[in-house]
Amino acid sequence: MTSTTMTRPARLADQQPPDVSFSGIPFRRLIRVEWDKATDTRAARWLLALVAASTIGLMLASMLAPSSVAQTYTGYLGVAALGVTILLPVVAILTLTSEWSQRTVLTTFTQEPRRTRVITAKITVSLILALGGTVFGGLVTAASLGLAAASGRHLESNLTAGVLIGYLLFILVQVLMGVALGALLHNSAAAIVCAFALPAGFALLGHALKSVGQWVDTSYTFDWLLRSEWSGHTPQILFSLALWVAVPLAAGLIRTVQRDIH
Questions:
Q1: Which has the closest alpha carbon to 77: 174, 172, 175, 166?
Q2: 179, 123 contact by CB (below 8 A)
Q3: Can you tell me the distance from the alpha carbon of 196 to that of 86, in angstroms, rounded to the nearest whole number?
Q4: CB neighbours (10 Å) of residue 145?
Q5: How far apart are CA 253 and CA 87, in angstroms?
């Protein structure tokens, strides 16, 4: 009996697994998985195709109706920026909301319980898409400028480093607006409606109260950002960035981390 009672604890101790700490899913793999979720669906492919079509279509319209856009390099680049950002934020919204709408988020957060890492991967994928849209818009602009010059049209070459940076920031900010709404609302339809309705509503407010609109109306603040007109408008631009991106994104991250999954 003594021998039995002495050896049994030893055997149990031998059967206990070693203390192993797991590092979790590599972040690079998370990005790859979220990239597939964002782009490898029929809806995503259609949306990305429509982003390309809207960019090319707006540029062609501007070329066929030269009075509708300034015949400058900056003017053409601005048209490309508008074309890219009509629907690309919707892709970003779906990247953040599709799992909640399709009720697959439980599987995702079971595989990676640290929700902030998943959200960070989704934001990273959205920014990669924004950079891709920026490059595509630049290529469309370059092709359009070449066609316009070949047709004998005079175009003012007024591109500067500041304008190119403003073009990049404009697209990134528009996509981050979609990210922020998606993270906050967790509902695809509601976030898409808000992405179009809220800026329109604030634009109406801006036309009625110009002094207020210069702080909250993105048609003012983000246009200054696009044109790299920071001088005299820096406080308004920063306030608008906080209102439309920083605050809803922070609130969305908090809600995502704390929300119960049923």
A1: 166
A2: yes
A3: 9
A4: 20
A5: 23
pLDDT of residue 181: 97
Are 181 and 194 in contact by the 8 Å Cβ rule? The answer is yes
What is residue 23's predicted lDDT score, i.e. its pLDDT? 61
Collect all residues with Cβ–Cβ distance below 8 Å to 260 and sequence separation of at least 6: none
CA distance 34 to 28: 10
The DSSP code for 243 is: I
Q: What's residue 67's pLDDT? A: 82
Q: Show the 3-state SS of 175-208.
A: HHHHHHHHHHHCCHHHHHHHHHHHHHHHHHHHHH
Residue ranges of the chain whose pLDDT lies below 50: 1-22
Can you give the residue ranges of every domain in the chain? 26-258
pTM as predicted = 0.88
Q: How far apart are CA 258 and CA 97, in angstroms?
A: 16
CA-angle at 261, arms to 260 and 262, nearest 5°:
115
Look-up of token digits 């070693």? 18
36: CB partners within 8 A, 6+ apart: none
- Alpha-carbon distance of 186 to 206, in angstroms, equals 28
